[in-house]
UniProtKB/TrEMBL annotation:
This is Uncharacterized protein. It comes from Paenibacillus lactis.
Length: 59
C-alpha cells in the first residue's frame, strides 16, 4: 500500500489517501467521485489539478 499527500495550488488544505499502485506525474486519480490530474511531484507532495471530465483513457 502506498500513502500519499496531495495539494491543489491556491488551497491550504491537503488531501491524504492511499493507493495499491504507485502514482506518477501525469496520472489521473479519482477520489470520492472527484477527478485530479497529478501535475508534478515535489518532495513527495503531489501537486494536483481538478479535472472536469475524462473523455478517454488508454494504457
Amino acid at each position: 500500500m502506498n500513502y500519499y499527500k496531495g495539494a491543489i495550488p491556491g488551497s491550504d488544505n491537503f488531501i491524504y489517501f492511499k493507493s495499491e499502485v504507485k502514482l506518477y506525474e501525469n496520472d489521473v486519480i479519482v477520489l470520492e467521485e472527484k477527478k485530479y490530474f497529478i501535475e508534478r511531484i515535489e518532495s513527495g507532495l503531489l501537486i494536483l489539478q481538478k479535472v472536469g471530465a475524462i473523455v478517454s483513457v488508454s494504457v
